Amino acid sequence: MAANSQTAPRAAQRFRHYLMIGITEIALLHGVPALAAPSDPSQQDSEVKNFHIAGQPLASALSAFAQQSGRQISYDPAITTGISTKGVSGTLTPEAALSTLLNGTSVQFRRLNAHTLILERKSSSSITLGPVRVGGAVTHQDPTGPGVGYFAENTMAGTKTDTPLIEIPNSIYVVTKQQMVDQQAQNVAQALRYSAGVYSEAQGTNLTGAAYSGENGIRQRGFVTTQFVDGLQSSSYTAAETAFLDRIEVVNGPASVTYGQTAPGGLIGMDLKKPTTTPLRQATVGFGNWGRYEATVDVSDKITKSGNLRYRVAAIGVTQGTQTQYVDYKRVGVLPSLTWDIDHKTSLSVLGSYIYTPDSGANTVVYPIVGSLLRGPYGRISRSVFLGMPRWNTNKTTSSMFEYQFRHKFNSFLDFQQVFRWEASDWDLQNSYFSEQVSASEVKRRAWEVQGYNRTVALDTRLTGRVTTGPLHHTWIVGSDFRQIESKTANMFGEFDTLNLFSPDYNFVPCIANPYACGSTGYLNHTSYFQEGVYFQDQIKWGGLSVILGGRQDWFNTTNRSGSRQYNSDGTSTLSGGSPSERPQSAFTWRAGLVYKFDFGLAPYFSYSTSFVPQTTSDWRGKPFSPLTGKQFEVGLKYQIPKTEVFLTAAAFHLNEDHYLVGDNEHPNFSADAGRVAAKGVELSANANITKDLHLTASYTYTDIRYAKNNLTASKIDLATLSETELVAEQGKYVQNVPRNMMSAFIDYTLPRSIFHGLGVNWGIRYIGFTYPDAANSYKVPAYVLFDIGAHYDFSELSPKLHGLKAQLAISNLTNKYYVTGCSSDQCYLGQARRFYGNISYNW
């Protein structure tokens, strides 16, 4: 009887709750004045009030919020039972204050109209890092933040200003944090698998996954890419650690106007995690095949009561084997950061990181063509076969970084921003590399040792202003940046030996450990360069029309000291070379573009842009190469369905680069100027939160890149005999290792909770078209299709006491397909076998 007496009032409360919602919605639809929205909704969005609500039970905190905000709140009292809040204090919009109150709870809100907010139970314990959601839409996204689901609306990468993607007249695609989490991407290369215009794993299973100096073969529109972190070019091998990133941005096409030396294909921009305005606490424990174990921590909170001083600490520890014997991956790293809002106009963020990778999982991924691409008499070479020497097998990197981001807003018309970074990377590698195939079962390999470091200092300083001239609204930038990079490497090569691929004997120990014993040869290279640029840009808006104009002047100088040392059996050595050489260079780059946004969400655009990359090397005669210069026309359509988080892009481009470098066929170990390379293509992309439970990313890429103006010849290889047959002209041939067609799609769906109680599934497909291995287009490396699947479960759907606990599993290459990602002459890169990663995460 007691139970019935409690049930009846609760049922009555719920009845009143739903009745009030129904009356409110009817009133809104029929224009009842008391509930009508204000004539200027944006004024309500920007309204700020002083809030002082202490930590307490959520029900009483909501009552205090209603009094202090002037908002009506409608909710079922049952959803607040047993839930407390940490409170909120400060000058905030009502929506931001309510978001803070509800942070870390199982309750979320949506806005019915300008005065009424409806509370409901959360559907998922997703990472709470993004902007405040109001009424199912985002008030304003952080342009460097994690996005919402698979949707990002704003970016800093395209213009160095906070600009909607739809208003930028070139292709920019964002990989959100949620997408990285759902796909369990362990590095940037894996996170880019579904991005338009990007071929991210041309060199197989390299776990470093960085975009520095073409590491892992990441290409955009057919050209090797460049990596930027928080807007500054990075020379770190460990910048690809996804545990430290909030988002990854793909800027396709020339970007030299705002970033200096970048390849014409574009750049990869990464944004590091920084303190959040709402508390964040997350810990994960991961697992996977090949003995993977991982733990991460990500904590952010305020230090002062007002929240003007906040911190964040992200950390990772991971150990695992790989599909190849004797190749392991181990890493520990930490990224602490601090944000200080000095006053309402001035802020300073300070970040530091340290990453130690004693095993990078990147040794020996090259295999002979017979046994990998071609099935030999002994079958396929197992992906587990190690072509190196277990006792000569080190690949260690260490990376450290310090960065600050400063901003001062003089007034509503003028901002000052500055970003500074110092970073250092060291590496130590002892390995052997595949040299040539002796027979169907044996290969020749050579011992190799290299030690080196990079030291980088970079600074970007800019003024951003906003001014109106008649009907035109201008957002302009004037800035200057510089980077000083010092790089030093010492290489040593030992003797050759042979290895049986199907019955390997690893007893060989190279005498390179004692170079005098075998007359080894060492090569030293010490390079330092300095680049400085000044740039300007104006974004002009007139109604739905946006026009961008920009230019940049760069000055570049490099000093190179290189030489060789020959070790003699009598214990002596001879050093040759080593005299420094300097190469000053300069260039002016510019871009112009326009986009018109219609009221129904469609935005056609057109742009022209140029690029510049200075060269530090010389041909076989010692003649320095000319700088790489590029120019591109691009036309496209962008479409954001109004009042949704569905963003579609279609782009067509024509891109030329002059002085493209290729290997010199007549002079091994040297490069040659291949003249002009022309690329044209089409990119289609979709990033969408179709519903709150259904997320989608999909892309199609067509790239036709050829040697357009070239007087070089290349040797054609007969695939049957693997011998050179004839010399053919390179002009008109396709550039090697660039697929003409790529297609991908990834869907994540949280199933109906009333039936599946928190279960979600995802599925992906990746198609990579055929490629050519060389400039002679001797043969084709076949296309391949890969499937990815995954699942996640939110335990809070079982019980409110389990709020924040979530389990996840992701499997890539579901069918365990044996495939080759690319070849070069008689050697090929093997793709990744079936891989499964999972984790258990807890947010509190």
UniProtKB/TrEMBL annotation:
Intracellular or extracellular location(s): Cell outer membrane
Residues in Secretin/TonB short N-terminal domain copies: 71-122
Show the segment(s) annotated as Disordered.
560-583
Membrane-topology annotation of the record: Multi-pass membrane protein
Which residue ranges traverse the bilayer? none
What does the UniProt keyword field contain? Cell outer membrane, Ion transport, Iron, Iron transport, Membrane, Receptor, Signal, TonB box, Transmembrane, Transmembrane beta strand, Transport
Q: What is its main location?
A: membrane
According to its UniProt record, which protein family does this protein belong to? Belongs to the TonB-dependent receptor family.
Q: What is this protein called?
A: TonB-dependent siderophore receptor
Provide the species name.
Acetobacter sicerae
